[in-house]
Amino acid sequence: MNKRLMNMAFMDLAKSRYSVRKFSDKPIEKEKLDAILEAGRIAPTGHNYQPYRVYVLQSAEALEKIRGLTRCAFNAPVVLMVTVRKDEEWVNPFEHSIRAGEQDASIVATHMMLEAWDLGIGSCWVNFFPVTKTADAFQLELNEVPLLLLPIGYAAAGAKAAPQHAQRRSNDELVKVL
């Protein structure tokens, strides 16, 4: 495939994707869920340490638990909980307070979010949940911290982008060439 065509396909995908907050009851096919998880698995991480874990919350019990912790699961049929294992993340040798785990997990989640959209599956990046209570509810180890939730599923009829979705600041404001 021509490099320019590949770039255009990605830009179309990136521009069309929006946060879905209303999901249908249609289950996600196993092969599509596997493809979404594979997109996360191949994401780059600092020093390739791969300090993240992805929990696929899809059982009635797991979904009830996460829905009891946040209203932002949006009744999705699957919620991906992305965590960071603090003992596995790369640490900047020049500044020990700079740790790559959150960045790594964010890259993983972005890969999964975009692969889902490419497969016709919506998602919404969620940080609105009690981190400590969630870790306790799912019995995570002390060194493992939930970073984000990614409810995924087929968009329900009437789902649409939020009004502010297309509002973007200009590159003149956001990008500085030095």
Helix/strand layout:
Elements: H1 3-16, H2 30-41, E1 52-57, H3 60-69, E2 78-85, H4 101-118, E3 122-123, H5 131-137, E4 144-153, H6 171-174
Antiparallel strand pairs: 1-2, 2-4, 3-4
Structural notes for this entry:
- It is a single chain.
- By secondary structure, the protein is an alpha+beta fold.
- The protein has one domain: NADH Oxidase.
- The chain is built from 6 helices and 4 strands; from the N terminus they run H-H-E-H-E-H-E-H-E-H.
- A 4-stranded antiparallel β-sheet has the order 1-2-4-3, with helices on both faces.
- It starts with a helix and ends with a helix.
- The model has no long low-confidence stretch (mean pLDDT 95).
Overall pLDDT, averaged? Answer: 95
Strand tally is: 4
Percentage of β-strand residues: 5-15%
Name the assembly state: single chain
| CATH top-level class | Alpha Beta
Strand order of the largest sheet: 1-2-4-3
| Low-pLDDT segments | none
CATH superfamily annotation: NADH Oxidase
Name the overall outline.
globular
CATH topology: NADH Oxidase
Q: What CATH architecture label applies?
A: 3-Layer(aba) Sandwich
Proportion of helical residues: 25-40%
Structural class: alpha+beta
User: Can you write the helix and strand succession as a string?
Assistant: HHEHEHEHEH
Our count of domains comes out at 1
Distance between the termini: 34 Å
Give a short account of the largest sheet. 4 strands, antiparallel
What is the count of helical runs?
6
Work out the radius of gyration: 17 Å
